[in-house]
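In the current project phase, the collection of sequences with tokenised folds has grown. One resulting record follows, to show the layout:
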Amino acid sequence: LLAESSEYGLVSGDLEYLKPTIESLLQLDGTILSIEILDRAKKPVLKLDKRSSRDDANAREFEAPVKQALLTVNPFAGNTPHVGDETLAPPTASSQQVVGHVKVAANAADILAKQRHRATVFALIALATLALTVLLGLALATSLTKPLKMTIATVRAIRGGNHSADLAPSTGGEIGELQSSIQDMAQRLG
């Protein structure tokens, strides 16, 4: 993201507007030790650094090119040339030129600690979701099997000759309708 936002500064030569952004990045993210903007020849043009000698052992550098998209002009569409005509293909890597580089040095130990923390949080969320799903499944299964067990026991009692078996509907839906039908059948048989 910093490479994309550095394009204007490198092309225009005005890197002063990037300093507040880079300074705030260095303040907000404790893992970032330094940010360096390099020109096309990889010569430093802006560097903000907050590392100490102890940080150098754990530092890892990441570099990204700053690319400038070349404008496509179609002079054949009408009387005037059109920039970015819809009939032209979107910009590709070959239609971009590298105007510089952004190099970020970060503390690898801090990055790994953040990744471990993130993985732990995601694992705990997944575990909590799994536990909640299991509990919900058990509650749904119990709410389904309990009325069915009562219904089966009543049908067995009726089959055994007990026509006075009382089965009041304990739930709604199809199971409640089945229980009402069984109760009506028992009363008629009685």
